[in-house]
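Sanity check

After download, print the first record. It should look like this:
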Amino acid sequence: MAVTDVNSSFSFNGFVKSPSFDKNVALFGDSKLVNGGPSIQLTDSVSRSEGRVIYKKPIRLFQGKERNFSGSFSTSFSFSMPDEIGSVLAFVMVPRGLDLRLFGRKGNSSSGLGFLLKHKVVAVEFGISKRGNRVGILVGRPESAQRE
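Expected structure tokens:
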């Protein structure tokens, strides 16, 4: 993942458990580093497993009182998920000041994003439904406008 902004730029080429990792990244639920850190596993291989990983530092995309969009970002990541109905992965951007402890709660509704009901968010959700693979775009609330 890479982000470019006046104040932010970062990338991860693998993960290593270190003070720097703990300062910048938070793992919640069942998520963990795999074999010391080449990748992050978000869930266990059991039903109803949930995990989350959060980059803790703010990335400024808006500036000024009128909140003009002033930034851009790019990201790339690879993932694999089981071919099981209900499997979901979401890339989420949340507003500054959101209590990150909310990410640690299991059993939230709306694809595990229930804590976002009262917050403005942007998310891209990848999932498996009865009709096959799907991609959802969530803007402002957790109901998604889906493309299948």
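If your output differs, re-run the checksum step. Summary of this record's structure: Residues 2-147 form a domain with the Jelly Rolls fold (CATH 2.60.120.200).
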